[in-house]
Design goal:
Farnesyl Diphosphate Synthase, 71% helix, 153 residues, single chain, globular, 8 helices, mainly alpha
Length: 153
């Protein structure tokens, strides 16, 4: 898991979002991000595990040898179903960590924490049933509902 978290792109995505937040994200927030606080670790965990669960079979067909799923199954002698069950448990625990982090005082604003939470929430959209990065057409309904058929307020 340590390697899986480091090799993910969540850090860069969150850092890029901070850049776009202007005065809300100053040097203090970037330093906080570099210290890899628990909420960041939890968001990375959700992203990594959710993405690996959904894309595992496709990646194996493409010839990817190593993935978090493969490593887990080999290390623990687990079946794919057992690995998925354990990954879902780890994802659930990561959400609990995110909730705890949002409940206690931090050196960053709630706007910064909300951005991290929203990234984790977005992962659930991208990887709900299929790898939305590799197969963006599965996101068509979300995009249609958001931009073409929005709910009037």
């Amino acid at each position: 898991m340590e390697n899986a978290l480091v090799t993910g792109t969540c850090f860069y995505g969150i850092a890029a979002l901070f850049v776009g937040m202007g005065e809300i994200a100053r040097i203090n927030e970037f330093e906080w991000l570099q210290n890899f606080p628990e909420i960041i670790r939890a968001a990375y965990t959700i992203g990594r595990l959710r993405g690996d669960m959904v894309s595992h079979m496709f990646e194996q067909e493409r010839g990817h040898v190593t993935s978090t799923m493969e490593c887990y199954m080999k290390q623990y002698g687990a079946s794919r179903e057992e690995a998925i069950k354990e990954f879902n448990t780890m994802i659930s625990n990561a959400w609990k960590d995110i909730n705890e982090e949002c409940m206690k005082p931090t050196v960053v604003s709630m706007e910064i924490l909300s951005t991290v939470v929203n990234i984790a929430r977005l992962v659930n959209v991208f990887y709900k049933n299929k790898d939305g990065i590799s197969f963006p057409e599965c996101l068509k309904d979300y995009i249609t509902k958001l931009f073409i058929e929005p709910i009037p307020i």
